Amino acid sequence: MSTMERILLALETQGAGGESVLGSIKIAVMPILKVFTMCALGLLMASKYVDILPASGRKLLNGLVFTLLLPCLIFSQLGQAVTLEKMLDWWFIPVNVVLSSIAGSLIGFVVATIIRPPYPFFKFTIVQIGIGNIGNVPLVLISALCRDQSNPFGEYEKCSTDGTAYISFGQWVGAIILYTYVFHMLAPPPEGTFDIDSACVPLKNTSMSDASPAQAPLLANEEGITSTAPNTSKKWKIKDFFAFLYEKLKLKQILQPPIIASILAMVLGAVPFLKKLIFTPDAPLFFFTDSCMILGEAMIPCILLALGGNLIDGPGSSKLGFRTTAAIIFGRLLLVPPVGLGIVTLADKLGFLPPDDKMFRFVLLLQHSMPTSVLAGAVANLRGCGRDAAAVLFWVHIFAVFSMAGWIILYLNILF
């Protein structure tokens, strides 16, 4: 028997889960190839040769996905799957998101300390390694995986509904982390801008002046109430207090459409009467849920086309340099997942996870294995380092095609 024949025979032997090695590779790689193909088509559509997805078109498509299609998918899938008992059983999903961010940030701190990224990108490096994509990419992967008839998680309907529900249940925590921790970490340096070489005016003065119109009326109103109207009714003071709290906690940034959809789905799905009224197939208001399901199905292709189109601007003139970019890719895709595997394994040993739910464990593992969050790139854009974030997102997503395939193969062999 030749060496090649022995290799093929070894690959075709049944593993512990009943799947051959080649079968496991097919199950893991096919969803990645589907994602890569649709992203490549988006990149082609945005290229100068076709140019039907220019920057303005991608912006509109991203807005449509974020404002309508993704919330519809979350609302319909999470609302149908969730109950009060299940939410109590799923408590480790948001905890896992927090632990993933903490562990990833600690790894990012160690990596940044070793490689010493160019000033002022130390905290930027920590964030790019620490904050993974816990929403869009996992949703796409689960959908592509469930469509494969040989997938080990069962029929498409149950596989997709459960996977989407688990992923959606953790998104609200991810949004809070993004618009609090990440927003704070990506604050501009004392010079006022990440583009140090071309810095002309420090942002400190600009930000103070920019902030004053928003803050001055509130402070002025409070002083006016104190000095000119001491007997003003309490309701106006309460209103001003909540307005101040709303601004300080950045609730406007946190309460984005996907988060609102998640909260609504959890509230309505947890109340049996409302669930029967809206989410069951024979419910009088099921037409609304069904409409959301139809719109939600368009989310996957739209977001992949938009993501592929956005990557066309990625490798631009970043100031990070090859060493820092390579360290971010290595840290995010190769150092964070093993730590996540340890966290999930320990939680399973301690009995924190629902018994015999393979999809639950798979989603937890995926939350540690994803590329850098696209929304972290959006926050970076708000803070003035969007060009460098785009470069990181481009290269991380390119290499994630290979790393995710490897990690998924490992996870499937561990779970089955």
Automatic annotation (TrEMBL):
Keyword Transmembrane: yes
GO cellular component, as recorded: membrane
Main location: membrane
One GO BP: auxin-activated signaling pathway
Keyword list, A-Z: Auxin signaling pathway, Membrane, Transmembrane, Transmembrane helix
Bilayer-crossing regions: 27-47, 59-78, 90-112, 124-145, 165-183, 254-274, 294-312, 324-347, 359-380, 392-414
Subcellular location: Membrane
Keyword Membrane: yes
Membrane topology: Multi-pass membrane protein
Protein name (record): Auxin efflux carrier family protein
Source species: Flemingia macrophylla
Lineage, top ranks: Eukaryota, Viridiplantae, Streptophyta, Embryophyta, Tracheophyta
